[in-house]
């Protein structure tokens, strides 16, 4: 793209230092860019490093975790040297996040209204009266039919879908430039999932936000993302446009994920499956991190981890099958 990236992450490494001198390389050399107004999805199985990537961007990594290398630039500002106090001004204001489980992200002892008002007073410097009025507007905007009553309710009084809507109201309250949605529809039934995702899309258009969508659901990716990054073993293994990923997947891991999806157009007796499990991040294979599960693994795959190479300007893949095909 010609315009500058809103978010630029380069060489990001986030490690966790465990007992017995084990080092969990949860994120191990990630590069990503998000441009204004687009939705980028990071997909992969649990344990691939998706959520740690999003928490690293927000600088919410606590001990025993540590951001070991790389830089994170947002609107041209490098987050790396910023203090916690400086980051507090950015979080919720310029970058907001929706967490997987709203019941743990929302404070159980404060009303929904209090939690939205606090964000508006802190970041937007509104008076409590103006913040109250704005909070009611936000709840109506995200689909609460009885917004004023909801202001007085506590998180446990709301259903899962309504708690997620309340989280979205808090997240968009300061009209952030970037919204990070970490598995925003976990534990919600299918109809509520669709409503929440449509709502996020609507808010994206209304506030001209960019969205970083963390998910393991390729159906959601197909419907809502502009570009996709497939993550495995703490690294990006394939990155391209959503259309290209579904029409011409290249990495064996991506192909395995797509083959495991049911398709109403294809009558297959049995869905595909990827054998084995995601290895723990403190015990990756010596070579390619997918080599012990890959049907196409060669000897060199077990010795050296391939680099992410450009197949085209918009399609990158980390696989020795494409050695010599890179641009």
TrEMBL record:
Stretches of the chain forming a coiled coil according to its record: none
Cellular localization per UniProt: Cell membrane
Cited PROSITE patterns: ABC_TRANSPORTER_1, ABC_TRANSPORTER_2
Highest taxon in the source lineage: Bacteria
InterPro entries membership: AAA+_ATPase, ABC_Ni/Peptide_Import, ABC_transporter-like_ATP-bd, ABC_transporter-like_CS, Oligopep_ABC_C, P-loop_NTPase
Any GO BP: peptide transport
GO molecular function (one): ATP hydrolysis activity
Assigned protein family: Belongs to the ABC transporter superfamily.
Protein name, per record: ABC transporter ATP-binding protein
Organism listed in the record: Perspicuibacillus lycopersici
């Amino acid at each position: 793209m010609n315009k500058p990236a809103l978010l630029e992450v380069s060489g990001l490494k986030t490690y966790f230092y465990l007992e017995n001198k084990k080092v969990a390389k949860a994120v191990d050399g990630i590069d990503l860019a998000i441009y204004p107004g687009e939705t980028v999805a990071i997909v992969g199985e649990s344990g691939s490093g998706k959520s740690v990537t999003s928490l690293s961007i927000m600088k919410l990594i606590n001990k025993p975790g540590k951001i070991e290398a790389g830089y994170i630039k947002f609107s041209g500002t490098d987050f790396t040297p910023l203090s916690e106090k400086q980051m507090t001004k950015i979080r919720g204001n310029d970058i907001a996040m929706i967490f997987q489980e709203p019941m743990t992200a929302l404070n159980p002892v404060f009303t929904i209204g209090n939690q939205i008002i606090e964000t508006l007073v802190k970041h937007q410097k509104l008076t409590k009266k103006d913040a109250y009025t704005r909070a009611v507007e936000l709840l109506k905007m995200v689909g609460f039919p009885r917004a004023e009553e909801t202001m007085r309710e506590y998180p446990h009084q709301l259903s899962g879908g309504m708690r997620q809507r309340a989280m979205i109201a808090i997240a968009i309250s300061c009209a952030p430039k970037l919204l990070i949605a970490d598995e925003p529809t976990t534990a919600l039934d299918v109809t509520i999932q669709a409503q929440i995702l449509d709502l996020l899309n609507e808010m994206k258009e209304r506030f001209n936000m960019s969205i970083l969508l963390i998910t393991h659901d390729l159906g959601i990716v197909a419907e809502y993302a502009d570009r996709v990054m497939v993550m495995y073993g703490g690294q990006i293994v394939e990155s391209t446009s959503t259309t290209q990923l579904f029409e011409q997947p290249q990495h064996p891991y991506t192909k395995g994920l797509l083959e495991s999806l049911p398709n109403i157009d294809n009558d297959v007796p049995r869905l595909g499956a990827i054998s084995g499990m995601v290895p723990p991040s403190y015990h990756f294979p010596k070579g390619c991190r997918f080599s012990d599960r890959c049907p196409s693994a060669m000897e060199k795959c077990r010795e050296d981890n391939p680099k992410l190479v450009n197949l085209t300007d918009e399609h990158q893949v980390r696989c020795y099958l494409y050695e010599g095909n890179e641009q």
